[in-house]
Inverse folding.
């Protein structure tokens, strides 16, 4: 009788371990927009470039996914900010990146490694959305006047504008802070207009704007 009771306990223990293992495997399963089972720190809602997920871009025509750095290039950790944009045109647009001309929107992520007193931006990951469409020039792969909001996990919202931007082919692909790769580099000027509705210090007459940041790769 004691032997039978012990066997029952042993079987129950084995099944408990098996159930725990299956739950762990289910939680680590990858999905569209994730890599190696790791969810972006900039989630929820962050749209990352995924060549295997053609329906991840809200029905718009994918124009390019580009990554740029401010204060350092190559993702070596010396950068101040890192901006990854997934750029889309109007649904049904044709011609690809270099044939389409028209409105452009962006989703994506941004990482901030340091801040300053003129435009205090909390360190960490942000999710990018569009509040005003910009204009894409299909003859050059350039765009301008794109209004974007960057949302931090603590509720901070940066109201930003891409004054102008260019996407450029890169080999090998660029990787952001979390290891997601982009086939294009981003070059352009970005202005942080406000933080939670408070305007950033623009600067002083005759000097470069303090709230304008140049990105390259």
């Amino acid at each position: 009788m004691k032997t039978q009771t012990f066997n029952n306990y042993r079987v129950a223990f084995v099944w408990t371990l098996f159930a725990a293992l299956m739950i762990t495997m289910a939680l680590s399963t990858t999905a569209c927009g994730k890599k190696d089972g790791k969810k972006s720190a900039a989630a929820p809602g962050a749209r990352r470039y995924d060549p295997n997920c053609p329906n991840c871009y809200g029905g718009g025509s994918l124009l390019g996914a580009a990554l740029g750095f401010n204060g350092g290039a190559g993702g070596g950790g010396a950068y101040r900010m890192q901006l990854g944009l997934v750029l889309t045109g109007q649904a049904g647009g044709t011609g690809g990146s270099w044939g389409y001309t028209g409105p452009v929107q962006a989703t994506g992520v941004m990482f901030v490694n340091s801040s300053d007193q003129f435009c205090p931006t909390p360190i960490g990951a942000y999710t990018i959305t569009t509040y005003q469409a910009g204009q894409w020039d299909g003859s050059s792969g350039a765009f301008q006047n794109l209004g974007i909001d960057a949302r931090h996990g603590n509720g901070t919202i940066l109201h930003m504008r891409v004054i102008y931007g260019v996407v450029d082919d890169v080999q090998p692909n660029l990787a952001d802070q979390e290891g997601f790769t982009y086939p294009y580099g981003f070059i352009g000027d970005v202005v942080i207009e406000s933080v939670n509705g408070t305007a950033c210090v623009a600067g002083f007459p005759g000097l470069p704007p303090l709230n304008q940041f140049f990105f390259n790769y």
